[in-house]
Amino acid sequence: MVAVRGAGLGRPVVRLFSAAGVETGSFLWEKGGMAGWGWSAEQELVIVEATGKVSFYSLQGVRLPKELTFGPEVESEGVGAVHIWPDGIVLMSALTQQLWASVGLREPRASRLAPVPGVTAGAPSAAAAAARPGTPGGRDAAAAVATGTGPAPLAGVTSAQLAVIRPEESLSLCLEVLVAAGGAVWVVDERSATDQRLPPGAGGAAALAVAPGGGFVAAFCEDGRLRVFSSDFGRIISEFDTSSAVAPLDLAWCGVDAVALRWEGLLLLAGPYGDWLRLPASGPMALVSEVDGLRVVTEATHMLLRRVAEPLLQVYRPGSTAAAATLWDARDLYDSGSARADRLLREIQPQLQEAVEACIEAAGLELNVPRQRALMRAAAFGRAFVPPFFPPLLMREAARKLRVLNVVRDAAVGIPLTMPQLEALTLPVLVSRGAFKGCLGQKRVGGKKV
After folding, report:
1. How many angstroms separate the CA atoms of 144 and 99, rounded?
2. For 153, how many CA atoms within 13 A lie in the half-sphere containing its CB?
3. Distance separating alpha carbons of residues 447 and 188, to the nearest angstrom
4. pLDDT tens, 49-105?
5. CA-CA distance, 23 to 31, in Å (whole number)?
6. One GO CC annotation, please (predicted)?
7. For a Cys staple, 61 with which of 27, 66, 105, 245, CB 3.0–4.6 Å?
């Protein structure tokens, strides 16, 4: 986490924190204005200046030797919009609205993307691009080279919203930048800009967000409706009427189950079937999408919002008749010395393997350590009565990962991961991170020093 505070009339101070709110470092910002900041996959703080220069800092606030510039064109115009993700940066110059990108922050290198018709200075209008051969219907407007006559004011273009479909998530296996400007949404790569027209009456898109995995795109449209599209904009998955004429301050995905919209004093979660949830949202707030939920960070709290997973519902739902809930009850009865435990096991014998697997999965999703242990004990109890072809390492691997998760969730370490997040990150990546090594110190994972 990053906090930037002004120091009176002097330069601002950038302070870095772990996810548990423990300060890990700070430094004095002695450069110009900031256009944006974010975190790389290597846990480096990435700061983009208003001139397009990019600086990198460690978790301790130490300036790293590498840097990135987007050339004299961006430096002279300034940055109009920027989007940072763990492995890259996309920005739009302020005057000509030209897109630039750097994919791969280990050895960053800037590249120019295709101009957007009707948006980028020097590019043809959308109507002119549609009239060109090979661009039927205007839905595949080929990239045009700037004329070199110098930047000109752009009529009707006052702001643009950027979002990114990462190369590993796109169908083309290339970076795709979504640009919402001038009442349209464009998908831009290095070679072309494609107009993805919104439904009639929607107006333009005031905010965009790409779901984890790149499968869906959420757009808050000027008609006050939140629309979720497939990533190719071929289908509208869902619509939700917010009845708001004001664009949200922030738009983010909660896993792939819901979309969060934040206004001053309000956080709204909209689900796929018209379900919604209102939460208070006072003061500064940051929304961070995860593969299984949404992190909500304020000045005083760090929360994780996520949908209750099916294995947890099977065990904990009041009156549940699922085999996993019966196995949970059987273990409790066995601990109390009741003979009913045997009868319950016989009742669920055909589904016993499924119940054991559900209890193991529920333990991995559970954040409370005592309940984790209770679920693993229930799984171990049922494991003794399942057929011999049950996966022999399933419980061992789950227990090993839980030990790691419980250590890194400690406030002294400050890496509150869930099991789905760990599986997406992978254990080797977690262990290789300098933050993990430095913060753990003499902590023990699975009985061994890390």
Report:
1. 13
2. 3
3. 50
4. 999 999 999 999 999 999 899 999 999 999 999 999 999 999 999 999 999 999 999
5. 22
6. HOPS complex
7. 27
Tell me the whole-structure pTM to 2 decimals.
0.85
- CA of 391: how far to CAs of 153, 309, 357, 427, in Å? 65, 22, 10, 21
User: pLDDT at residue 138 above 80?
Assistant: no
Query: Residue with structure tokens 């119940």?
Result: 355
**Tens digits of residue pLDDT in 414-438:** 889 999 999 999 888 888 764 444 5
Burial 220-246 (b: 16+ CB within 10 A, else e): bbeebbbbbbebebeeeebebebeeee
Pairing label, strands 2-5, 13-17: antiparallel
